[in-house]
Amino acid sequence: MIPVAFNYARPDSLDGALALLAEHGEDATVLAGGHSLLPVMKLRLAAPEVVIDIGRLPELRYIEVRGDEVAIGAGTRHRAVESSEVLAAEVPLLAAVARTVGDPQVRHRGTLGGSLAHADPASDLPAAVLTLGGTIVLRGPQGEREVPATDFYTGVFSTVKEPGELIVEIRVPRTGSAGWGYEKFVRRANDWAIVGVATVDGRVGLVNMGATPLRATATEAALADGASIEDAAALAAEGTEPSSDLAATAEYRRHLARVLTRRALTTAAAR
Ligand SMILES: Cc1cc2nc3c(=O)[nH]c(=O)nc-3n(C[C@H](O)[C@H](O)[C@H](O)COP(=O)(O)OP(=O)(O)OC[C@H]3O[C@@H](n4cnc5c(N)ncnc54)[C@H](O)[C@@H]3O)c2cc1C
After folding, report:
1. If DSSP codes are grouped into helix, strand and coil, which group holds residue 240?
2. How is residue 3 annotated by DSSP?
3. Rounded to 5 degrees, what angle do the CA atoms 30, 32, 33 make?
4. pLDDT attached to residue 195
5. b/e for 161-180, b at 16 or more Cβ within 10 A?
6. How far is CA 207 from CA 51, 131, 192, 210, 223, in A?
7. pLDDT at site 190
8. Who's near 15: CB < 8 A, 6+ residues apart?
9. From CA 44, how far away is CA 70, in angstroms rounded?
10. Which of 8, 151, 247, 255 falls 20 to 30 Å from 145 in CA-CA distance?
11. pLDDT of the residue at 189
12. Residue 208 and residue 189: Cα distance in Å, rounded?
């Protein structure tokens, strides 16, 4: 499959990328790792006239502790998240979730910002950032704005990001030694989740249980009220609207959500 012809630009700074985005408007799109964009272009579901490559901008690649948060540049690759000593110590859930994304080739190209911007409800990292209570920092013609992950996703492949904006940074709280767990149910190794469940510090997030990553709010409330893991996990699918597809029916996904939540909470409690 060959994409529609496009012009390619590789600015050497973030400001240059933002200027090109402003110049070309909705005719342009940015390329980070290309592991979601290029398949979409090859299927001709997207046909941008201009592709702006931000994948090599050093300004967007860092992982730093800032106060009670860790700040991660949007261009940081999954492999860097997975192998970061800072994240292993401060936000171990995020590093562990990055380790489950695709295969080594995907993790060496794909970026955290790209995964969040693409907003595939079957992706692991958007749900992890939601579970952590993270913040997404957007920069565009009007300057910078910070969007809580709870407000970022609006639907399948859809977010509050405006066309002229870039995700520049993702901030997640330092959870340190708080118990965490990630359970990902796949049919084949290296696959997307049929359902995934992330948990840290009493919060629980769901992968592929609706149009966006979700928090299992009934489970979280039950845990806060002192319910057992068994009883809290039984509520994990409440309020969700998972899809039925070739991989699983909606009812099977609800079953998986309950089972995986119990396993993730049990792992978290034992850490
Ligand atoms: C074989 C394969 C297996 C995979 N398996 C998994 C998996 O198991 N779990 C999983 O979660 N993901 C999986 N992925 C997806 C992978 O994680 C992608 O890398 C990721 O979803 C997109 O990141 P990217 O950097 O490649 O973004 P790109 O493909 O470059 O871009 C994706 C979209 O985000 C936009 N974008 C990128 N960066 C920014 C930014 N900074 N600001 C604003 N918009 C931006 C682009 O314009 C585009 O619309 C897989 C992909 C492949 C090809």
Report:
1. coil
2. P
3. 140
4. 98
5. beebbbbbbbbbbbbeebbb
6. 29, 10, 10, 8, 20
7. 85
8. none
9. 37
10. 8
11. 87
12. 17
Q: How remote is the CA of residue 256 from the centroid of ligand 1, in Å? A: 25
**How high is the pLDDT of residue 70?**
98
Say yes or no: domain 7-53 is CATH 3.30.43.10: yes
Which structure tokens are listed for 212? 């966006």
The CATH code of domain 58-173 reads: 3.30.465.10
C-alpha torsion 66→271→116→147, nearest 10: -50
**Domain coordinates of the chain in residue numbers?**
7-53, 58-173, 180-270
Query: Which residue reads 């579901």 in tokens?
Result: 45
Tokens standing for residue 167: 């995700």
Nearest alpha-carbon partner for 179 in 202, 196, 160: 202
Ligand 1 atom nearest to CA at 191: 8
Identify the pLDDT of residue 145: 98
Ligand 1: residues with CB < 6 A are 29-37, 74, 101-102, 106, 109-111, 113-115, 117-118, 123-125, 161, 166-167, 192
Averages of pLDDT over runs of 10 residues in the chain (271 residues) are 92 96 93 95 93 96 98 98 98 98 96 98 98 98 96 97 96 96 94 97 97 98 98 98 96 98 98 89
